Structures are given as C-alpha cells and as structure tokens.
C-alpha cells in the first residue's frame, strides 16, 4: 500500500503545533505541546510520537513531514550565527557599514542602525570587475581570493559570502570563486549573491548573501539533526520546509538557502487562512493569527495572500521599518505586533499600562501555567475575565492556576495603577486589542483598503479568544473561526504547494527590452525551479511571471502581472503597468517606463486537507459561566463543546465555544452558525 500520512509541524515561541492528516482514513488529528526553546526538535519528536500513538499510525506509514521554524529569525536577533567573511569587489569593502546612509527614525538623535553581520575587518576587496552591462573590465584575481580565504580561516571564519558588483548582470566571477573554494576548502559553506538574490541593489544583495551565510551552518546542523531524529523514530520520509513566501521546499534547498526560511512559521498561518477563504468563497479576508508571543495580520484577496519581495531581519526596533538588515526574498506581506497570549503587562515609566512586546514565552510562560512566571500576561487576564476555563485548557492536560494569577495582576498592575483586579485585567485585554487594531488599520490603509469590508479569519491559540474584540474595533461584521483553529499554522504546512520563487535583474527601458535575452533568462529560471521541485510529471508545474517596473527616474518599482501569452508585447505590458500603478497610487503618469526585475514563481499543486471532524455524540451544551465581554461587561454566557456541535446549528450570543487548542467568546448581538465542517460563521450585526 502507498503511504498517505503527512504531518505538519509549527514551532512557535510558546507552543509547538502539529497536525496529522491521513486521507486514506479520512483522519485529521491535531496536537499541541509547549515548545522546548533550548532544543526545538525535542518538542517536535515528542509531539509526532504522540500523534502516531493517538492515531495508531505506524511510523513507516508517514509519507512526509512539513516543518516551519523561527530558528533563522532567532539566530539573527540573538546574534548566534556563524563567523562570516565577505568577499566583495575591491574598493567596496564598506558597503555593509555605509548601508543606506539614512536614519530609520529622524526624530531620535540616538538611533543607531542594526549592526552588520560581518565586521569591517572581515570584509575584503578582490581585484576584478564586471561592468554594469555585463562585460568584464578586469579579470578576477584568483590568487587574491585564495589568500583572503586562507586568512579568513586563520581568523575563525566559518562561512563565506561573495557579493561582487553587477553580479546580477553576469555572475561569472562569483561562480568562479565558488569553484575555487570548493576545490581548495571542501566543506566550507559559500554563498554567492547572484544565487541567493540575483537582483539589482548592491547593498541589499550583499546583505542577503551575508545573512544566508550567517545562518547556514546552524540551520544545516539543525535540519540534519531533525531529519536524523525522524529516521530514528522509523519515519523514512522526506522532510520539507516552509518558505517565507508561503510555499514549501526540499531539505536540500532549505539547507542551501536558509535565508528563505526567515518568515516560514508565520507564512503558514496565512496560507491556511487563504485555504479557508477559498473554501468559503470569501473574496476578502483578514488573516488574524495570535499565538503566545506575537499576533500576525495579513490580507488575503481572491483566495491568495499578498506577497512582497523585500524584508528586514534583526531590527533594532522591532516595529520600526528601516531599523533592520535588508533581505531580498519573497515573503508573505504581513504585519507583526508584539501582542500575544504571553505578552507581559506592566505600567511604564509614565504610569500608563503597556502590554508587550516582552513575552513570557513558554519558559516560564504566563503565571497561569504554574511554571514560575511572576509577571501577568494577556493569557492571565483572559483567565480572570472568564475567557478561559482553568480545568479545560489543552483539553485538561494543563490546569491553569488562578490564585497566583490574581496575586500577580493585583501586585504588578492593579495596585500600581489604583485599579481593582477586573478593571486591571480588562485594561490589559483592551490595550492589547487596541494595539492589534491600530496595526491592522495601518496595514490595510497602506494597500488602500478598509477593514470593514473584510471577514476576519481568527486562529492561533489566542486568536479566537480576541477575535470578537478586534472585529468590534475594526467594524468588521463577519468572523470565521475554523475548527482546530489553535493549530491552523501546522495545517497551513499541509495545504501549501511546493514552490520556487526566483528573480533576475535586466534593467532596461520598456521600449528597449531584449526579448530574446529575457526568454533565455526565463528558460534558465524554469530549469532551476524544475531541478528543485523534482516533479514526477514536469507538466504539473505551474508558472507565474511578473515584472518589477517603474517610471524612468523613480527609485522604487511595483510588481506587474505578466501573462505568458503577452510575452514580447511591450504595449500590453505598458498597459498592465499603468493599470497597476493607478491601483496602487490612484493615478498614472505619461513618462517612459522601465523594467527592473523579471520574476518567475513555479509551483506544484497543493494538497486538499480538511480540518473537519465527525461530531461526537452527546449534548454540546456544557453549562454557563460569567464572562467579561468587550463593550458589555459581565454577562452570563452559554458554554458549548465544539466537538459536539452539529452542522447547521444556529446560536445567538453571548456564547463561549471551547476546544482543546483554543476557545472563543461572542457577545449578545452575535448570530453564530456551524457550517458543514464545523467552522463557526459569526455575524456581528454591526
């Protein structure tokens, strides 16, 4: 029999979420356990072993494991990566130090940019020069390459990045360096900028190459160790990894280009929300993923998330653009807020209540977890307000402590601010919700959209808990809470399509494009994508072409759709550019246009995975309890067991719905309907 079981694993800052899916048995089974920050693979292997035992699945029946990790991001934030040496064109050793030469905060005279990953003394210039048109002005000095790398190794360098001038146009010198080092120093990780980010932008390309080299040794060891752990369990199946752009890739590709995993975990949640939107035929939804550490908000239109092609890692100020290291890669366009279940609440120096971005994480975690936490968090406030039931958290496996939570909120928030306990707890929730609402408004406004026209898809351990309050603030009238919302990111790994996103810069005025050269570039990009995807049938690969364009003289391009049938038609491409520009900025111009980058996204079909489950027999009504509901105060709410709900059931709030991985609460004006796969469809009636 062919193997049919697939497992998705999402390692978050607080919990590790898992979903096992077996279409042969019609089985989808979730799992959730605390993350082990010191060794993430411990929680992964323990969670998988538990899933296999609970579903009576032999390890040999597993056909694949898809994993997402925040290890790349954490490595950059904590500066625990490899010692990197950078080889660049002679005379350009200061590129990383000079950066963009602008302040990310012009009002803060003490603001300092992010420290480069490669110190100045390990940035070395190599004689040799490629011109902007791709011709060789001076040959590469191969002896200088070998001499500098020998000195690197004497200084403890563990990985080398290569970023020569104009390598996006012709990368012969970078490829030659890689060949030289492969022979002279086999086993030394070498990243060339043209392979990891072959686009125009000297500083951004060099920064991306250095970041890839910085995390490559650690990520390679981690992925190899995880693959070995799985095989030791008897799982002889491919390990795939989620990309920042929402696709999945092979283990080998992830090890070669680990920089592409920067946002792999958060991207999975948006991919899951997009799958839910497509199934419900919701044209526009806001993906709202609130976990233990942060909340992530993204736009999904037409069943697909928005993507962008630049990102910042290791920001000095996490929520200030420009304060990090630029990375040229495809990522799901989302905004991240330091408001999660574990976000710590305390008065600031002005005596105002502040929630986040500091988080209690999984160790020690919120006070309610009983693991030594002493500072109150959003989860602790939710417990005080009745949003969480102490005895049923994680299906009863982790009983929440109430006495210590009361003491912590009184000591750290209520008494310093002169409030009673309930006002303090409700204040914590209101501040966290207001922060998320402000971020959502800003994110949608940047795209010219009004949140009131969207449905809110809420998931993550804390997302459904706070969906009602967030929707009220955003004037959203429809909430969607999928079944097993607490492990939706892990579900996203299972529905994501194997994908390769690539770009190549060939700057030219639109009227002067060399279409034969462009055709050759696309053939090369398609060949690379096919080699990575390794399809059983090459005809199954779907290609999507886009072009980065701008008006001549502008500094920033926009991405324009480019159909295969329109190839070579400059007039059609110009019309598409003008239309995209008008949609973005509200008007178009009459000046000449130019092309900067040619992009190709190649993907195989994704998987159709349902989170539905057969309702359990029995009365779904668990009783009632008092719950503090935003805008209403204390109300008696009916408590429902989501696993016993029947499709087609319609309920009027106030109501609380509990499941193992999460819970949600809705006010008295809400009308809730249970759809065929037990998703909750909530009409707020605003």
Short description:
The chain is built from 16 helices and 35 strands. With about 675 residues, the protein is α+β, with helices and mostly antiparallel strands.
Describe this structure in words.
The protein is an alpha+beta fold and 686 residues long. It has 16 helices and 35 strands. Helix 11 crosses helix 12. The N and C termini lie far apart (53 Å). The mean pLDDT is 90.
Which consecutive residue ranges, at least 5 long each, have pLDDT under 50? none
* Rg from Cα: 26 Å
Strand content: 25-35%
Largest sheet: 9 strands, mixed
Q: Give the helix tally.
A: 16
Give the integer mean of the pLDDT values.
Answer: 90
Q: Span between N and C termini?
A: 53 Å
- What characteristic shape results from the CA principal axes? globular
The number of distinct β-strands equals 35
Structural class based on helices, strands and sheet pairing: alpha+beta
Instruction: Give the fraction of residues assigned to helices.
Output: 25-40%
Features of the shown structure:
686 residues, alpha+beta, 9-stranded mixed sheet, 6-stranded mixed sheet
Topology:
Layout: E1 5-11, E2 15-22, E3 27-34, H1 40-54, E4 62-68, H2 71-78, E5 84-89, H3 95-98, E6 123-126, E7 129-130, E8 136-138, H4 142-154, E9 159-163, H5 172-184, E10 190-192, H6 193-196, H7 202-232, E11 239-242, E12 248-249, H8 251-256, H9 264-280, E13 284-290, E14 295-301, E15 304-305, E16 307-308, E17 311-313, E18 325-327, E19 331-332, E20 334-337, E21 343-347, E22 353-359, H10 378-384, H11 403-417, H12 421-446, E23 455-459, H13 463-474, E24 478-481, H14 488-495, E25 499-509, H15 515-533, E26 542-551, E27 558-561, H16 570-585, E28 593-603, E29 621-629, E30 633-641, E31 650-652, E32 655-658, E33 663-666, E34 671-674, E35 680-683
Parallel strand pairs: 1-4, 4-11, 5-6, 5-9, 9-10, 13-23, 23-24, 30-32
Antiparallel strand pairs: 1-2, 2-3, 7-8, 11-12, 13-14, 14-15, 14-20, 16-19, 17-18, 21-22, 24-35, 25-28, 26-27, 26-28, 29-30, 31-34, 32-33, 34-35
Helix pairs in contact: 2-7, 4-5, 9-14, 10-12, 11-12, 12-13
